Amino acid sequence: MKNMAHNFLENKKNSTQPFSKIIFGAWGIKKDADFYNVSEKDSLKALARAVDLGFTSIDTAPGYGFGYSERVVAKVVESISRDSIQIITECGIVWGGEKRGVYTSSAKLDNGKTISSYLYANKNSIIKECENSLKRLKTDYIDLYTLIERDSTTPIEETAEAFQLLKQSGKIRFGGIGNFAIDDYKKACDYFDFQFVKARYNMLNRRIDEQLVPFCKKTNKKILAYDCHQRGILTGRSYPEFYFRVGESDFFTRYYKPDNKEKIRKFLNNLTYLAIEKGITLANLTIAWVLAQDAVSSVLLAASHIDQIVDDGRAAEVILSMEDVAYINSNIDFLMETID
Q: Are 37 and 68 in contact (CB under 8 A)?
């Protein structure tokens, strides 16, 4: 573990990859009566431990607890040299005030109040969001500002103009995109150099290999991968319960069919032998596999407890050979051919 911080910090030497290989995802730090309710004390401990271990990049968002996560992150970052840490946050989802854009979700707070959120990427709204995030984070600039989803009510070029203005004013270093259709992402890059893209990517979900990965390789864009464990399935621990999400597709729900669950268990058993050989956990192996993929520069991992952070950190040190990756890929290909 003593060399872990060095491994994380090494990415800073390359200006095209300014973020640590494993990025601390702060989406579990929020007050949401339906899903999360992590105490501020535990959140601060988790973040502080992550920084001690060498996590130099932290991913948060206004929507995580309606500003709560950003404020907690600020309490840790303010005690660190600002240029030693990279802050990633998001925009494009608004709540309260006049309802605009496209409805996306609602959250129930501890006090019983329900707040609805909307996709909205109007130029003035994006700039205002950035100003609010800077205040909550208590910083002068954001290292990576990500438009988390496409707002169909606002022209892409108008949204891109907001990013251009924010970069020119020094309020953001890089711009990113998340959850965009490939054609929309390409169009957005015509108006602003969105150098990073957030995408779901794991052994059970390689859909970005078809179009996004080739585009990123060709244009030198970098992928920040998340959901590397497919909602916990690929950790090898107890099979997680399925929870329904609006718009959920058969692509994901099929993993919870009894026959497919058994096939996935056998697949994970095969990979466990490789993990044991390397002295790591299956969760470490699945993260390392994602990091070994073309165009992926970092993975985003959420953690709210210290033990989880320590285990996640080990994945940054795992080196997979070409033979290891080929073995894993052959098992993935066989599994996907048999999944109903």
A: no
